[in-house]
Design goal:
Order of helices and strands: HHHEEHEHEHEEHEHEHEEEH
Structural class: alpha/beta
Helix content: 40-55%
Radius of gyration: 24 Å
Strand content: 15-25%
Number of strands: 11
Distance between the termini: 47 Å
Largest sheet: 7 strands, mixed
Oligomer: single chain
Length: 301
């Protein structure tokens, strides 16, 4: 019989970095958790963690054991899900991870369809930074997650959505170029950005990396750059400041009564984001999870 509780306790210690912090998360006493770890290390005949002043770090043996724990937990969960599908596919719980920005675009468009097909299924949202999502799937804290790359051999990424990235042109320049609100404009020469003011997301975000890569590849030296952490603020601020910004298709506003930002692509440099649905490699996907992935695939940015 697999002792899933002990496995989860050990993984929580590794994630929290200390016995005290893990005990608080697990609602158990610190002495009991310490005793569990000591007994396990005695059974294995080796230490699983380096006892540092600030944070517990896995030893080489600990890394091996923790990897095995994650795999065992994933297999146990997968087997339960497969059996549950045979018994009753309409009930259960799916933890779906994504950024707040992706959730804003995606969830309202699939929520009703999903619950119409699986009315008894709980769909729990885990809103996290993009950089944290892969780790949560790897640790089996999240069942599925939407991200732009696969991080690690333990995960699989299934393409679900291709999103075009547009250049948002300020109204003052759009009028000069004969552009209309919305996406139906011809591509522009990248040199339009030379020395021009930009509004970009802060470093560490996928859209910022795409923008930086584009500017570097096109040998463009823009003017002053204003940074923000919010895509909607970037779009509004760019228009107010007469600046350019890069906008993913899922965030692009539809023109209202002939008004709205002018969007276009850069000539000779198409920009795309391929959204992937991450899950643990080899894990059984329930009928409800498969349906959820198909709903996302059916969306158009």
């Amino acid at each position: 019989m697999i002792d899933e509780r002990r496995i989860r306790y050990l993984l929580t210690i590794a994630d929290a970095g200390s016995i005290t912090a893990a005990a608080e998360r697990l609602y158990v006493t610190q002495p009991a958790l310490s005793r569990m770890l000591i007994n396990l290390e005695r059974e294995l005949g080796c230490e699983l963690f380096h006892r540092g002043r600030r944070r517990l770090r896995p030893t080489p043996a600990g890394e091996i054991y923790l990897r095995g724990c994650r795999e065992v937990l994933a297999v146990a969960s997968s087997v339960r899900d497969e059996i549950a599908d045979l018994r009753d596919e309409s009930r259960g719980r799916i933890v779906f991870g994504m950024t707040s920005f992706t959730a804003e675009f995606l969830l309202p468009r699939i929520w009703a369809d999903f619950h119409e097909r699986f009315p008894g299924m709980e769909l729990a949202l885990a809103e996290e930074r993009m950089s944290d999502l892969a780790g949560l799937v790897r640790q089996s804290e999240v069942d599925l997650a939407l991200a732009y790359r696969v991080d690690g051999d333990e995960l699989e990424g299934e393409p679900v959505l291709s999103d075009t990235v547009y250049l948002q042109v300020p109204s003052s320049r759009a009028a000069e170029l004969g552009m209309s609100p919305g996406r139906g404009n011809a591509p522009v020469d990248a040199r339009i950005l030379e020395g021009a003011p930009l509004v970009l997301l802060k470093p560490g975000r996928n859209m910022r990396a795409l923008a930086d890569d584009a500017l570097h590849a096109l040998s463009i030296a823009p003017g002053p750059v204003t940074e923000t952490a919010n895509m909607h603020i970037a779009c509004e601020l760019a228009e107010l400041a007469g600046a350019f910004t890069f906008v993913p298709g899922m965030a692009a506003q539809q023109p209202q009564r002939g008004r709205g930002p002018a969007l276009c692509e850069i000539e000779g440099y198409p920009m795309r984001r391929e959204l992937l649905c991450l899950h643990r490699r080899g894990r059984y996907l329930t009928h409800a999870e498969r349906h959820l992935i198909d709903l996302v695939k059916g969306l158009r940015p």
